[in-house]
Amino acid sequence: MTRYKIIQADIGQHKCDILSLLRRNLRDETEGAFAWRYEQTPYGPAEAFVAVEDASHRIVGIGSVFPRRVYVCGEPVTAWIAGDFSVDSAHRAFGPAMQLQRHISGHIRAKGLKHFAYGIPNDQSKAIFRRLGYVPVGSFNRFVKILKWEYRKGKQLLGLRLPVGPADSLLKHLSTETWCRRPRGLSLETPSTFDERFDRLWNTCCYAYAVVADRSAKALAWRYLSCPSRAYEIAALTNGRENLVAYVVYHLEDNMCHVADLLWDNNEISPDCLLAEFSLFMRNKGVGSIDIRYLGNPNFVEHLKRFNFHDHREAAAEVMIFAGRDIPVMQQVLTRDNWHFFAGDTDH
User: Fold this and answer.
1) 3-state SS assignment for residue 152
2) What gap in Å lies between CA 6 and CA 62, rounded to an integer?
3) For the chain: N or C, fewer Cβ within 10 A?
4) Phi, psi of 52, rounded to the nearest 5 degrees
5) Closest of 268, 232, 275 to residue 251, by C-alpha
6) Where are the alpha helices (DSSP H) in 116-157?
7) pLDDT digits 0-9 by tens, 253-311
8) What is d(CA 234, CA 214) in angstroms, rounded to the nearest whole number?
9) Where are the beta strands (DSSP E) in the chain?
10) CA 240 from centroid of its chain's CA atoms
11) Cα separation values, 191 from 67, 183, 188, 219, 267, Å
12) Rounded to a whole number, what is the largest CA-CA distance in the chain?
């Protein structure tokens, strides 16, 4: 019978073996992306656990957790994103996957009352997560707004090639933002950095959500500007006093806008206003569509639908939480409506 030993990896010592495993099973991970995700986070290094086959002493499986600071009712808590779960195909029938995740869940439980883990497992991993005590908190849904008939490079609505001008004009005419009244004094800018205004906005907004990840300027700069795999851009809304009242972080791919994060000050601006301004901005840039992935309050979902974002339920994933039953924040983190969770809150 094949046997395995589960050990906590030394990231520096085992880097080459881990990279090789990730490249065999998940993606073509570069050394720069690995260093950014595993070694350079503002909250300390990731922690990885590996399955070592006794007979060959080879690393054949991995499961990692990536630290984040999450605010629960305004109090900082350490959350760990469960990711990079992978086992070589020749060993998937012999149990190292369950051994790895059991070891990781025990490790998180041992960290104490101010720690929990969350992840978005694929269909193959979901059963393992459930058996180990992960609980579903809700669907991480995908919402898409079409701005142009060619909504993605080389892709047309309904597969029909129509004259671009009339088709795009019709879509614009039918879009909610075309007919919105714009508030006076509001302007959109595209900063290249996250300056002190983002900290002021975050300090105002961090208590507005029961469960929200750190969105300080330092955290945003690491997450988006230092990311080696995507070129993120910023759209920021300011009022007449030049105070930052909202922002969107996004990247463009195949002429689609993929939103990573949104934040707004409810005392200064409504979600409707933010969605209207950003949609107009993207249409003026010639972007074909906007893609937003979200878990949280259904009120925001209603705002998205009002602005012609369509729910693609077939693309929904499930966010799952692991936490000890006695931790103080258990009830808050298990309530879907408490979250303010976008694509940027995942581990990539």
Assistant:
1) strand
2) 9
3) N
4) -110, 125
5) 232
6) 123-131
7) 999 999 999 999 999 999 999 999 999 999 999 999 999 999 999 999 999 999 999 99
8) 17
9) 4-8, 47-53, 59-72, 75-87, 115-119, 135-146, 187-189, 211-213, 233-238, 244-253, 256-264, 289-296, 310-322, 340-342
10) 31
11) 27, 21, 10, 16, 22
12) 72
Nearest to 205 by CA among 196, 218, 214, 194: 214
- Within the chain, all domains assigned CATH 3.40.630.30 are found at 4-133, 141-318
Please state, in angstroms and rounded to a whole number, the distance separating the CA atoms of residues 188 and 283. Answer: 14
Asked whether the beta carbons of 128 and 98 are under 8 A apart, the reply is yes
* Third-level CATH fold of 4-133: Aminopeptidase (3.40.630)
- pLDDT, tens digit, 9 for 90 and up, residues 164-208: 788 889 899 999 999 988 888 899 999 999 999 999 999 999 999
List helix spans (H) across the chain: 11-25, 31-38, 96-110, 123-131, 164-174, 196-205, 217-220, 271-284, 298-306, 330-333
CATH topology of domain 141-318: Aminopeptidase (3.40.630)
Rounded CA separation 108/209 (Å) = 24
Structure tokens given for 193 = 């950095």
Taking the C-alpha atoms of residue 286 and residue 288, their distance in angstroms, rounded to an integer, is 6
Give the angle subtended at the CA of 98 by the CAs of 124 and 61, to the nearest 5°: 85
Helices (H), ranges, 151-259: 164-174, 196-205, 217-220
- By CB atoms closer than 10 A (0-12, 13-18, 19+), residue 275 is buried
Phi, psi of 63 (to 5 degrees): -145, 135
pTM of the complete model: 0.93
Query: What phi, psi does 141 have (nearest 5°)?
Result: -90, 155
| 294 half-sphere exposure, CB direction, 13 A CA radius | 26
Q: How many residues does the chain have?
A: 348
∠ CA 135-215-186 to the nearest 5 degrees? 125
How far apart (Å, rounded) are the C-alpha atoms in residues 5 and 30? 27
Q: For residue 163, how many other CB atoms are within 10 A of its CB?
A: 9
